[in-house]
Amino acid sequence: MSVLRKILVVDDDAVVGKSFDRVLKSKGYAVITAQSGEEALLKLKNERYDVVFTDIKMPGMSGLEVAERVKKSQPWLPVVVITGYGTSDNEVRAEAAGVSGFLRKPLSPEMIEGSTNKALQELDAILAAPAEAEAINLPPAEMQRPESTIKNIALFFAAPFIGLAYIIALPFAGFAILTWMCAQALLERK
After folding, report:
1. Per-residue pLDDT for the chain (190 aa), expressed as one digit of tens each?
2. Where in the sequence is the domain holding 114, given as residue range(s)?
3. Is the pTM of this model over 0.85?
4. DSSP-derived secondary structure letter, 107
5. Between β-strands 29-34 and 51-55, what pairing exists: parallel, antiparallel or unpaired?
6. Helix or strand or coil: residue 136?
7. Is residue 129 located within the same domain as residue 149?
8. Are 186 and 100 in a shared domain?
9. Whether residue 42 is found in the same domain as residue 67
10. Residue 103: beta bridge partners?
11. How many domains in the chain?
């Protein structure tokens, strides 16, 4: 069973988010969109994502500011900048923030899929190297989802009792079904 990879697309143009969704959904990715940098940062605070794509030019917070804030709070998270305004100043600032790459508009399905695969490979390489993960303060998997750890511990201790309940209830359920079937057969004969 594979884990669903979550992609956050930050763009004030809904068509861009739909394009990512159309291309990546069929590949098994969950695409979540945000219309602004503020909305994206809120989503990043509340959920875990595997890659962030952000448009460079948006009202309010720019994509470069989004990239800088994401890399400051989650340095292991790949960020790809989408731009129709590729200036050398923007590229220098984005590279200084540590972005994984640039996508230039207009976007093609191949560009979307290729940059997603590259960013995920970068993330997987970071997660596979424990020394690097510690160096960038990557939280351990247990720390990322504490509720799943608590749930697993509770299920571990509850499993014997659940099994015992099935063992005790099975003969009664079987006897009840057998009795019901006999009663139905007797009623049909009359």
Report:
1. 356 889 999 999 889 989 999 999 988 899 999 999 999 999 999 899 999 999 988 888 988 899 999 998 888 899 999 887 667 777 777 777 788 888 888 889 999 999 999 999 988 887 777 655 455 555 554 444 556 677 778 888 888 888 888 888 888 888 889 999 999 989 888 7
2. 5-144
3. no
4. P
5. unpaired
6. coil
7. no
8. no
9. yes
10. 82
11. 2
